[in-house]
What does this fold into?
Amino acid sequence: MTLRYLVISLTLFLFACKDETKTNNISQVNSEIAFKSFFDQAIIPEILQLDSLYNSEFEKWTEFISFSVILNDMSEDDKNHRIMISSLSNKLDNIEIDKIPDPFNTPPIIGRTKVLKTFVEKISLTSESEFSTEKYNDDIKKIIVSFNALVYQLNARVKEINF
It folds into this structure.
């Protein structure tokens, strides 16, 4: 009799854990949107935008604005991955960590800029034969996520300055 209760309890426990895992996966998929321009079948996070209320502040960092424009253009046109990634890499080469304009020269922004530069440099070294791999898709996601983290910090900084 005790063995029967033990088996039933373990079975219920296993099924309860299995349902919880499915629920978590569904909520993660809903928080992302399809980034159709790079890969028709991939799911890439939405690209955050700089707060347009503070354009005059953001214009102080023209190198970042140029990078942002190219990254946003990638969401519209992806004819040649190598050219797009090369353009991103060139724009990031123009961003020197020690020359970030004064309102944005803070440790969180500097750190996120370094992370973004690292991911773009990594993907710029990818061979064309790897463009359709899952690893390449993950690297693109990392660029978008690190860009979003930087944009979030920039938006927070201008709001902090202006209040």
Summary: Residues 2-30 form the longest helix (29 residues). Strands lie at 33-34, 43-44.
